[in-house]
Amino acid sequence: AGIELPATDPALAAAVASATFPTDDEASLTAMLEGVLTADLDAPEPSTLAHLAAVMVIPALRDAALIQWASDEQTGREAVAAQTAYSTAGTAIPEHLGRIMVGDTMHRPDPDRLGAALAACRIAAAHVTGHEHAALLAAAAWLAWALGRSTHAGHYLDHAAQADPDLTIVDVLSRLLATGTLPAWIFI
Predict the structure, then answer these.
(1) Predicted structure pTM score
(2) Which end of the chain, N or C, is less packed with Cβ atoms under 10 Å?
(3) pLDDT digits (tens), the chain, 188 positions
């Protein structure tokens, strides 16, 4: 139950396709990512869905978003800065941030935050196509995995791989799922 994407509303899809959103700086990006956690998904803002889709297409920002949703906005800002430093200067990602991405931390993320982010990614994925659709499905796979829902994660991951076989997160998550690895926080 709950594995299929919501039905696509053609009017909302058209509004998302034509939406504009602010140029990202660290503060507006992390604020938007926090905002999706409390958004009214029964009447989503097209610009929010478009912004979310645009962010998920950029692997560094997608990873920062996942880290933020698994922690808090301050850690999200730290993750954005770390990803930017990695992209521009090759600076290593701090270990504590990398550990969140692979579920190797004993800090249990708030399941309500993860669930709200998953719901937002599913709604957005239902209303975009192409690379954005695949990237949102990959994010949904990670979020489902982080909640301990491996079957759902595998479903989203399979669809993400079909939509965009070049997504690197697909390989990483596929290995975790193939070995039955769940985040450490599931067991606390």
Answers:
(1) 0.94
(2) N
(3) 678 999 999 999 999 999 987 666 767 899 999 999 999 999 999 999 999 999 999 999 999 999 999 999 999 999 999 999 998 999 999 999 999 999 999 889 999 999 999 999 999 999 999 999 999 999 999 999 999 999 999 999 999 999 998 898 998 899 999 999 999 999 87
* Residue 150 contacts residue 180 (beta carbons within 8 Å): yes
Structure tokens belonging to residue 42: 């029964």
Coil/strand/helix, residue 179 = coil
Specify the residue for token string 């919501």. Answer: 6
DSSP 185: G
125 Cβ neighbours under 8 A, 6+ residues apart: 5, 133, 136, 137, 140
As given in the structure block, the two tokens for residue 126 are: 């239902």
Give CA 61 to chain center in angstroms.
9
- Tell me the residue type at 95: E
Burial of 36 (0-12, 13-18, 19+ CB in 10 A): buried
Give phi and psi for 112, each to the nearest 5: -70, -40
3-state helix, strand, coil in the chain (%, to 5): 65, 0, 35
What is the DSSP code string of 5-28? PPPP-HHHHHHHHT---PPP-HHH
* Residues contacting 46, CB < 8 A, separation 6+: 12, 15, 16, 18, 19
CA nearest neighbour of 170 among 138, 147, 143: 138
